[in-house]
Amino acid sequence: MRKKMIAGNWKMNKTVNETKNFLEMFLPELVSDLVDVVIFPSFLSIPSALEIAKDKIFIGAQNLHFAIQGAFTGEVSPVMLFDVGVKYVLIGHSERRELFFETDGMINKKILSSLSYNLYPILCVGENLAEREKGITMDIIKSQLAKALKNVSPESMNKITIAYEPVWAIGTGKTATSSQAEEVCKEIRTYISTLYNEQISEHIRILYGGSVNPTNAKELFSMENIDGGLVGGASLSEDFIKIIHYNQ
Ligand code: PGA
Q1: d(CA 222, CA 28)
Q2: Pocket test residue of 165, 167, 215 for ligand 1, highest count of atoms within 8 A of CB
Q3: For residue range 140-177, what is the model confidence (pLDDT) as tens digits?
Q4: Do 113 and 154 form a contact (C-beta atoms < 8 A)?
Q5: How large is the greatest C-alpha to C-alpha distance in the chain, in angstroms?
Q6: pTM of the full predicted structure?
């Protein structure tokens, strides 16, 4: 049985004070026995968020550099994140790929580096609208997965979560239908079994992300191959609580 994960990607939102206020106000309601809850605030807010969240929910990082230290102005390393107590890190989000020109090669380096510093990557993959319309969704996703997971050992795969995020559904209010999302998540699982083996593919968590909200969460998360969600906009408000408790 895979435990569900519901993760909130706050992107470039909320100051340190806003982060503290949100967590101080809502922490009891953000906790669930049934799902692992993770919030990804800005780098600046991570230490305060960790202090408030204790071990009740996880606090993650939205990005990292693959080097351990050095002359990389403006970057944050895996060692620094591990040192403050971060467990999960988002890698390969479509905004990083598109707006910050991250390539599959860089994403692979970030995955390998995270793993060697005991961080747990959430690898984001997904097609854009033109790719979906051309019918090449799975070609794109398989290529993203194969390149991102290059040289990742089978033993490390238990630290990885995959987030399927169709680019056309992110921040657009246009959610994939539960059957569209399930179809791709199922194919991702099958592909992981060909890259690794069935045991690994059965164990790995695959999240859906893209305009998840309190209304569509239950149907999406009830699908056999969808193990939770990566939530953007709706994680910034009390809607996130409703999404975490989607099953009640
Ligand atoms: P959204 O973002 O929920 O606002 O569509 C999802 C994401 O970018 O992870």
Answers
A1: 24
A2: 165
A3: 999 999 999 999 999 999 999 999 999 999 988 888 89
A4: no
A5: 49
A6: 0.97
Instruction: Pick the atom of ligand 1 nearest to 173's CA.
Output: 5
Q: Is 229 in the pocket of ligand 1 (CB under 6 A)?
A: no
The CA–CA distances, whole Å, from 169 to 10, 80, 176, 209 equal 16, 32, 6, 8
Inter-residue contact 49 to 59 (CB < 8 Å): yes
CA–CA separation, 176 and 168 (whole Å): 9
DSSP H helices, the chain, are 16-30, 46-53, 78-84, 94-99, 104-116, 129-133, 137-148, 178-195, 198-203, 217-221, 239-244
Q: Which pair of structure tokens corresponds to residue 27?
A: 């922490």
Phi, psi dihedrals of residue 126, rounded to the nearest 5°: 165, 155
**Measuring CA to CA, which residue among 40, 37, 38, 36 is closest to residue 11?**
40
Q: Which residues does the annotation mark as catalytic?
A: 93, 165
Amino acid residing at 117:
Y
Residue 232 CA to ligand 1 centre (angstroms): 3
**Exposure on the CB side of residue 156, measured as CA atoms within 13 A:** 17
Please state the φ and ψ torsions of residue 206, each to the nearest 5 degrees. -120, 115
